[in-house]
Amino acid sequence: LVAIGTVADCATVLGENRILIKYGLIVIKKTRRRGLQNILKYCLGNRPTYDSTLIGFRIAPRINAAGRISHPESSLKLLITENVLEADVLAKDLHDLNSKRQQQTLESLKQAKEQLQAAILTDKILIAKHKDWHPGIVGLIAGRLTEQYHRPSIIFHEREDGVLVASARSTEQFNIIQAITQQKDLLLRFGGHAQAAGCSLEQAHYETFCEKMRALTNASLSDDDLYPILNIDCELRPDQITMDLKQQIDTLEPYGIGNERPLFLLRNVELHRITPVGKNGSHVQLWFHTPAATLKGIGFQQGHLAQTLSTGEQVDVACHLLVNTWNGQTSLELEVVDIQRAQ
Asked: Before 291, cis peptide (omega within 30)?
């Protein structure tokens, strides 16, 4: 539970935290907790790998789903129950809630992008509101927007009493809580830190708040700040991408904040094929031709690449190495972080 909480709360994976997570993953693999045993059935699937992504992308989202769109009591019961049947029911409920949360997030994110079409082209901060966006997912929407467009995002949910409640996310270049604090005369409540915050205000103050936040970001951020900087750890040749290399890299696990997965660069490879996958085409599968081999890749939340890239182009690829297990077959893939046309 310590390992799950440390990863889920986005704590740094350094020092004693890294040790707690490393050995926590070993304990999770042989856990006797009925609830964890059952939730793992949904989390592992065809990928029986016990690493930090198992917690961050599979266990934690399911446990958090109840608190986001239902009631967190279900998650607590799952973690403490000793009843086999109750554990099975609770695990399925949380899995279903997480699927519902994912669908709601995708639909709301699409609405937000449609609402922000003009702002994406002109503004250095993205601010949107909607009465139908669930308060438990506005932070996820803000995070996705900031990740894709590399600028601060503030997403509001409109309560029945008319009060607007927001979650905000930002980049390293802009201190979002400092900016929000400067608007305290307009706010009912606020709090957070440099890259994640929240606030609430009356509907009547919304436009003024937006104008002041736009003015602050325009004064603080340059056009260059709207482009993410990737810290490449190493450039690889295609023939160096082997399962042996991946196994050596995995000795650096567990990864997380402060101990990020190594990011590699492949230069001047041919994009042979690109196909949208997932609900609403939010992800893409890619194939790259190289003299050494054809490399397969996956781009999570990179669906937009299907509209911006053409097959046959020579591209530079920033990626992590990923082991994919499907139907008993294990293969090495590229987890694509970014692509640009070869220079």
From this structure: no
